[in-house]
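Problem: given the chain below (230 residues), write out its structure.
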Amino acid sequence: MLPIRVLIIEDDRRIAEINRRFVEKVNGYEVVGIATNAEEARELTEVLRPDMLLLDVYFPDMNGLSFLKWVRERFSDIDIIMITAAREVEALKQALHGGVFDYIIKPIMFDRFADTLHRYKEYYDKMQRWVKEKEWIGQEDVDALIGREVSVKDQPMLPKGIQPLTLEKVLAVVRQCPEGITAEEVGRQIGTSRTTARRYLEYLVSVGQVTADIAYGSVGRPERVYKKKM
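Solution.
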């Protein structure tokens, strides 16, 4: 898959260079340009058509929030992350209303910045795949896309034999095992039989919160391994 193309819009060249180095430390990204003023920002955005802008708020010749509106009016497919010293609540409010993916306050900590880029790449890759493969989406797709953890309270009326408290316990155990877990292991952790644990796990599979795959144990016996749906 092609890298995500990033345009940095930052009037301080030293900070812009730091941002460039940070971006290039994260797999799946490339910096295609750096703009330090309003004219460059508009010209490079129009010519390069990047996937993402890293945008400051304060410039000698423009306001980044006004530039955000300019981009939104012309390029609906460009995503934006604000990286700014602006701490005013009104600035944050305008940025969120403008649909920014994240709002990072200077000075940037690399771990915080990298976490945002990792989250954005998951979002970007999933959206690109959906555009090619899906015509319709379900609520579980939206929840997975925005990283919302779905509670059993959001589920419709539970079928007979499925109790909310036990279901929450089973789901919590699965979340703690990203590599996957068997019904027998789940039952052991929550104090129920393998059969009971499997009933709850299969229900979670049926509602799209958990996936199941086949793995072979040490004696060659196939087992279903359950994972939290990504």
